[in-house]
Amino acid sequence: MLLEVNFKSGLPVYLQIVEQVKAASASGKLRPGDPLPGIRSLAEELRVNRNTVAKAYTELESEGVIETAAGKGCFVKDGATPLKKDARNKALGELMDATIVQAHHYQVDDAELLKLFRQRLEAFAVRKEANEKPE
Amino acid sequence: MLLEVNFKSGLPVYLQIVEQVKAASASGKLRPGDPLPGIRSLAEELRVNRNTVAKAYTELESEGVIETAAGKGCFVKDGATPLKKDARNKALGELMDATIVQAHHYQVDDAELLKLFRQRLEAFAVRKEANEKPE
Amino acid sequence: MLLEVNFKSGLPVYLQIVEQVKAASASGKLRPGDPLPGIRSLAEELRVNRNTVAKAYTELESEGVIETAAGKGCFVKDGATPLKKDARNKALGELMDATIVQAHHYQVDDAELLKLFRQRLEAFAVRKEANEKPE
Amino acid sequence: MLLEVNFKSGLPVYLQIVEQVKAASASGKLRPGDPLPGIRSLAEELRVNRNTVAKAYTELESEGVIETAAGKGCFVKDGATPLKKDARNKALGELMDATIVQAHHYQVDDAELLKLFRQRLEAFAVRKEANEKPE
DNA sequence: GTGGTCTAGACCACA
DNA sequence: GTGGTCTAGACCACG
Description:
The structure is a homotetramer. The first copy, chain A, is mainly α. Chain A folds into 2 domains: 13-76, Winged helix-like DNA-binding domain superfamily/Winged helix DNA-binding domain (Arc Repressor Mutant, subunit A); 85-132. In chain A, 59% of the residues lie in helices and 6% in strands. Chain A has helices at 13-27, 39-46, 50-62, 85-105, 110-132, and strands at 66-69, 73-76. In chain A, strands 1-2 form a two-stranded antiparallel ribbon. In chain A, a hairpin with a 3-residue loop joins strand 1 (66-69) and strand 2. In chain A, helix 1 (13-27) packs across helix 3 and helix 2 (39-46) packs across helix 3 (50-62). The radius of gyration of chain A is 17 Å and the shape is globular. Chains A and B meet through helix 1, helix 4 and helix 5 of A and helix 1, helix 4 and helix 5 of B. Chain B binds a DNA duplex through residues 12-14, 38-40, 48-52, 54-55, 57-58, 68-74.
């Protein structure tokens, strides 16, 4: 099963779907051109309202992650963010700052934080590779 | 002026205050025992309702960042997060994953991402040092 | 009409709602699974703001009396308090002590107090039975 | 030490004092005519502001528990509630109902509740007797 | 349609 | 003077 939702998590269901599709796309589990499950079938599988899935797909389309072909379904778009480098770095910088502030709160020093970051990066690369091998 | 709010960013004002106080506390701009601005005075300065500031302070207290004494005022708590290492790393890992997924979406490769992270870390250290020097 | 509020009693409206729902649930007037009135309709009926009812429902949920499902409504939870016996007795003991101290102030002797307590208990049982009969 | 305050309990300090004096008076620890500690000395002992103690004493006087003799101090009044029996029973009934509702929530049956009540009553009597013996 | 959040005004309790 | 509570209006997210 590609996706899972956790009703108790507080995070809205449709955003859980959005995030998971984005993560799957970033990690190579879903690749450009791949079809997404149909709205009705996914809704049934996840036991959620069709509107919820539709909302997630709409959001994904507006973020440029997928594209919908009327009557055919939804497909993963090829990446290629049209964002400028500055904007990209600003966005990433903000996410990083949040991490750093939180780390200082936890009294985690820079060396450990960097180590943890490298671990995460590696773990992500491994997941991605695993998704690409069966190709 | 210690704090600033941006009414146009979708982020709720009270959360902006929370984040800024946390950042100031993490970076050493605010140190344990330091008093925070009174609710009324901060509200006036930021042009927001008293309750908005009060809500921020309540949240900060529940997160263990500050201490509030009715009739006296609010003060930065002395650190010592009682969180377990596992929980800490889990929380940080999630923040990092969000950054990494986003970076992959932007097609930023690992080397550049790591470089950016280091830059941020350094920028933070500089700010912190600046706050500690006048000591 | 299920609920009533008294604006002149110093007790906050939202707490009056909480207490009445708890009493109704304890006495069997409301049973597990029963739906509570919608926030809007109850607010209209009681002539209070929607948020006042919402606050009452939030409190009831946090006390484990009801369950609320966004977009669906609020429902009485099936009992089974997960509280330990010790904690229970401590809480009840405190309530009783308040009664006893008050009674001594009124110079009501133990026998009369006990008699009064029995009467109340019986009155409660009668109400409960009345709610269960139409079943 | 006759009184103690708990700053973390949430209950206002002055009410803690009120309650403890009332309990001491009800249980016989303090008897009609007994002098209460002076405001200044009690404030110092409890490490609270004199205003806080003064407020507690004012409240106690307005409730008819003590009387203050200007320049002499405060003394416990002889009980003798001027309340009518009906009013008394109504007040006690409400306190009892709160206990009963809570008990039903905890799924404590009537027999056990009555047993618990008797225990409390006895515990109270014992405390009272202990206070009267040294007489 | 549902419940939830954010901001706000007025009032209160406390030191 | 301080912070805290209750009520409320407007808006939002969700199904």
